[in-house]
Write a structure and sequence with these properties.
alpha/beta, 12 helices
Length: about 325
């Protein structure tokens, strides 16, 4: 496990001109209240997995019947567009290696829009079938996520479609900022559900949207009380290396079995938020993640290496202030692959 203590904690924004994550959870809850598929996901108390006083796991495997927290993101963006009369008949295009595409497809179907999802050649056909069942037009493009994203961007430009990505970069901020706001529903539920303020929060991260949103809301609710640890694959430590460098950097590495987290470039909004809010960045290996899956399933927490990465880091944690009195919050972000 690599470990970097965040050198920018509570400092000025790391990247000037990039917004911080929203903390307006009330706005999200008000809109989700009108969604028939919306229901609160459970907080599970888990014993014996780590030598701590309490371990709470926010279980997102049934979020809005789409299987992951991502249901709160793109679909929320499309719902906001529908409120403003801008969704019906619109075409949303994205690239996806997993659950983000399902959220785009479901949101488009519900609100009378169209969706086009670019996937890499390596994405299993069963996932392409799930997208098609939600009404998406599925296009295979390239050998990896970066190639499929390039295809989605080109299609948006050529056809006048709306690019709906879960990452942010120079010139592309408004949509991903709104998308991250959707994740606040998860954070607000967890804050209301835990019986005590956590001493530690472990947050897995790819581009950083989930981690950035939850960390921002945790600071809003609990200030400096929890120690917030961001967990990445060692094949894709984009947030850690960006924090180390003091700027957004693109990392290189092999493909990871934590495919939903295998993001070599951070979202700028998430990076800005986590540079302010996170205490630590750590990495775990593919072997460590895979080895933990059987134990998690045995504890009733069956998930993928991506979905359980925060729990894996907890079980491996050293030097992060954990002791028998610690109270830990983790997120089970998706079901088994």
């Amino acid at each position: 496990m690599q470990h970097l203590k965040n050198p920018h904690r509570e400092a000025a924004p790391l990247i000037a001109g990039v917004p911080m994550p929203s903390v307006d959870a009330a706005a999200v809850a008000a809109r989700l209240g009108n969604c028939p598929a919306h229901h609160e996901t459970p907080l599970v108390s888990v014993a014996g997995m780590a030598p701590v006083a309490a371990l709470w796991v926010k279980d997102e495997r049934q979020r809005m019947d789409l299987g992951s927290f991502k249901a709160l993101g793109a679909a929320y963006v499309i719902a906001r567009d529908a409120e403003e009369g801008q969704a019906k008949g619109r075409t949303y295009v994205t690239a996806s290696a997993g659950n983000h595409g399902m959220s785009v497809a479901a949101g488009a179907r519900i609100f009378g829009a169209k969706s086009v999802v670019y996937i890499a050649d390596t994405v299993p056909e069963v996932f392409a079938g799930r997208l098609a069942a939600e009404g998406a037009t599925v296009i295979r493009e390239g050998s990896d996520y970066a190639a499929s994203m390039a295809g989605a961007q080109a299609a948006a430009d050529e056809n006048g479609w709306t690019l709906l990505s879960d990452s942010s970069w120079d010139g592309y901020m408004q949509i991903p900022h709104r998308l991250m706001e959707g994740y606040l529903q998860l954070a607000a539920e967890a804050v209301a559900q835990v019986p005590q303020v956590p001493t530690h929060i472990f947050l897995q991260a790819g581009v950083g949207g989930l981690a950035g949103a939850v960390a921002a809301y945790a600071r809003h609710a609990w200030s400096d009380a929890p120690r917030i640890i961001v967990v990445e694959p060692d094949a894709a430590p984009a947030l850690m290396e960006s924090a180390r460098a003091g700027r957004a950097v693109v990392t290189e590495g092999p493909d990871s079995n934590m495919g939903r987290l295998d993001c070599k470039e951070p979202s700028l909004i998430a990076l800005n938020g986590l540079a302010r809010d996170a205490d630590d960045f750590v990495t775990i290996t593919d072997a460590q993640a895979e080895a933990a899956m059987t134990g998690l399933a045995g504890a009733g927490l069956a998930t993928s290496p991506s979905g359980g990465a925060g729990l894996v880091a907890l079980m491996l944690a050293e030097g992060l202030g954990l002791n028998p009195d610690a109270r830990v919050l983790c997120i089970l972000s998706e079901g088994p692959a």
